[in-house]
Amino acid sequence: MLQWLYKLGSPRHFYEMTTGFLPWLAGTTFLLLGIGLVWGLGFAPPDYQMGDNFRIIYIHVPTATGAIWIYAMMATMAAMHLVWNLKVADMVAKSCGIVGTSFCAIALFTGAFWGKPTWGTYWIWDAKLTSFLILLFVYVGVMALRSAFDSETSASKAASVLTLVGVVNLPIIYYAAVWWNTLHQGPSVLGDRDASANPPEIWIPAFFSGFGLIGLLFLIVILHTRNEILYRERRAQWVQELLDGERAHA
Amino acid sequence: MPEFQFEGMADFLAMGGHAYFVWMSYGFFFVVLAFNLWLPHHQRSRLLRLLRAHQSRQAARESPPSARPAALQTNTPPGA
User: Fold this and answer.
1) Is CB count within 10 Å lower at the N or C end of chain B?
2) Below-70 pLDDT ranges, chain A
3) pTM of this prediction?
């Protein structure tokens, strides 16, 4: 396991290992997402209070959770880059930017379109929503800061530091609905005995769409990282050979 | 086995009167994710094109003049 992790730290091994792994990841991802969304949209019973509007849950909750977790991953990678000067970690951190911003935007957008019919407003400056909006700005800020440097080394260092500073926002988002009295509800209870909890018919499709979206996150991050590896290692022998090989195929 | 909750396609699309909100949400979701999947593929093909072009230039520079393609052998500047 350690050996395997160690190998992933080398750009070349990361590239070669993900080549075989990608089709499997993509297949599983689209299968899970397909099942989760079809089930959630068509087959899960409507909520007794919100009717069919609650079906937004199958994309809102996983994208919001995903946006938080991918930030945590980006911060872990940033720390690894700063402490051990691990090149692949920085490439992964860079690759998290666009997909993290996208997940954030989807969560905010779907939240607004869920809030309108349920709360009567698209937006309210409540702690949960505001702290989540800040997460979106932090993602954009990290990407902007990285692109503001000419030197790749300085860009990586500055982006890593800002990423770590932004971590302070994560517990605020997570506990906002607990610490403060917000319009946004706290985490829901799942179970099959408690009458107030969500029944399995509601949350099982959410597991499918949730794991599907986790797969999609990794898929997109790996695709970006592979590009970054090819670019940064463009002078290496193995990349030159790879280019020759692909030319021979074409 | 879960049952289909709607009576036909029109009922499904109406989403119990919440069509606008549900389909706007899912629409945005699909558009943004499709862009996220398209982007790395697009960047990859552009990157490979650039790297290959660079590689060809490098090869042309290192090979003896006789091996160069005819277009590279002329000494006349372009437009002359």
Assistant:
1) N
2) 1, 187-197, 246-250
3) 0.86
Q: What is the DSSP string of A157-214?
A: HHHHHHHHHHTTHHHHHHHHHHHS--SS--PPPB-SSSTTSBPHHHHHHHHHHHHHHH
Domain that holds residue B44: 30-59
Could you count the other beta carbons within 10 Å of the beta carbon of residue A162? 17
**A105 lies in some domain:** yes
CB contacts, 8 Å: A114 with chain B? 21, 25
Instruction: State how far the Cα of A99 lies from the Cα of A95, in Å rounded to an integer.
Output: 8
- Cα nearest neighbour of B39 on chain A: A224
Compute the distance between CA of residue A40 and CA of residue A44 in angstroms, rounded to an integer: 5
Which residues of chain B are within 8 Å of residue A60 when distances are taken between CB atoms? 25
Taking contacts as CB-CB distances below 8 angstroms, the residues of chain A near B56 are none
Q: Indicate the residue of B2, B21, B36 with minimum beta-carbon distance to A39.
A: B2
What is the tally of structural domains in chain A?
1
Q: How many structural domains compose chain B?
A: 1
Angstrom distance (rounded) from CA A132 to CA A103: 11
Looking at the complex, report in whole angstroms how far the Cα of residue A133 sits from the nearest Cα belonging to chain B: 17
**Other beta carbons less than 10 A from residue A99's beta carbon:** 28
CB distance A43–B3 less than 8 Å?
yes
ipTM confidence:
0.86
The string of pLDDT tens digits covering residues A101-123 is 999 999 999 999 988 888 888 88
User: Which residue is closest to A204 within chain B, CA to CA?
Assistant: B2
Enclosing domain of residue A227:
54-189+205-242
